[in-house]
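Notebook, bench 3.
Goal today: get a predicted structure for Probable lipid II flippase MurJ from Acetobacter garciniae so we can plan the truncation constructs. The sequence was checked against the plasmid map this morning, with no discrepancies at the termini. Length recorded as 514 residues. Pasting the sequence as submitted so the record is complete.
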Amino acid sequence: MLRNFLTVGGWTMLSRILGLVRDQLLAALMGAGALQDAYQVAFRLPNMFRRLFGEGAFNAAFVPLFSSVMTREGKDEARLFARQALGVMLGWLVFLCVLGEVFMPQILRVIAPGFLQNGDRYELAVSLSRITFPYLVLICAAALLAGVLNGLHRFGMASAAYLAFNVVGIAAILGAAPFFPNVAYAAAWGVTASGVVQLGLLAWACERARFGLSPLWPTLTPRIRLLLRRMVPGLIGSGVGQINLTIDTIIGTLLPAGSVSLMYFADRINQLPLGVLGAAAGTTLLPVLTRHLAAAEHDAAHNAQNRSIEYVLLLTLPAVAGLMVLADPIMIVLFGHGSFTQHDAMLSAQSLRAYAMGLPAFVLVKVLSPAFFARGDTRTPVYVGIAILVLNVLLNLAFMKPLAHMGPPLASSLAACINVACLAFLLWHRAALVLPATMTFRLARVLLAAVGMGAGLWLAGLGFPLPGAFFSRAVWLAGMVGVGVMAYPVLLHGLGVINLRSTGAAIGKRLGRR
């Protein structure tokens, strides 16, 4: 399981790094203003549906069913089920895409009401959204193929294919921009083109796995009906985080121009640890839990879930400490150039700190939700999700005036913390979450090590302030990150969480084997 976790996490990290390059280009060429806001809203719409229908509710219901069919009835029956599911998904998504293209002006009135105050920004957002919306169909189909590969325990290509989004996006921004009215149009076409490339790569990977899939005509077989029954309530339960981010965007359009952009770039930095750890934990844990529960191996399921909790907190807590201390220099060094001014970077850093507060909760939702999905329960997260959505809206309304661009991120972080608390309590009440006292004590020491690392970085920043030149700033930031990377394992060793010698030997052995 750890090997799969690291495989998915490694590919996701590479994808996030390329995504950072892509975002730097967007910031430098468009800055934080009306043009950037319009593009970000155009991208948010298909991305939200992708998370809900592709990586969210559909896969949360599909992967356990697919794994169970594979285990109990064999490869041929599992392939038939996957082809039927692909046909139903494509039929539904094409229909949804056509509706979106026709009614895009009305949709933008709902998700970007603040744009109506500026007719040019509204019209641009409508045009860009019509370009990006077909990405929904392509990437959701790709997500199903990735779910099949994950069910076959082929995690590498399923994760690597998502590099195409950023590679194609960078190529479009750099190479195609001169042929369009502005950079936003080139970036929008790059989004849709990347969906074609990703779907093609995953289809090729399925063929190589001798599990080629072609969609069947949509038919509501008993197994597909079961899939839909599990999926529909999960649209909210598994997509609370994305819906909350969309609410953030809606509120952001009502704030001064540029607020959507400030929150977007802050969220992209927050997504580096969140995307890597959340994707790795959720992707690898769900099929493992499903397999153990199908074999009535409840102790093994508990152990797998607890290991995932430990892994993500071991890596997430120092990320929170680092982001809280280094938010300003991170945003200045990475985005404070071109049309994105240093003042914009400082404002975006405020949003980053608000997002970072909820980072452990955002990741733990990805770990706790599979415990429900693997047991065929997609209803309980729905009830929790509805309450969290209502709470997030109330918090957004309360924070938007006094906190401006910090309000929506802080609201999402608080809502995520309460979401995790509710999910954990319900699992514990059903004896589906068992945390030994030794594990709790261990995690407390991990928290102490992360706090110690953050305090050390803060003191180092006081002694060596951020320089003025760009190159010197980049070197300074790299040095501070290096100090944190070295200090944290030393603190873990000193607190008895890990043994540096044995851990280093184990990593060396793994690398030698690879």
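DSSP finds 20 helices and no strands in the chain. Residues 436-514 form one domain.
Flagging this for group meeting.
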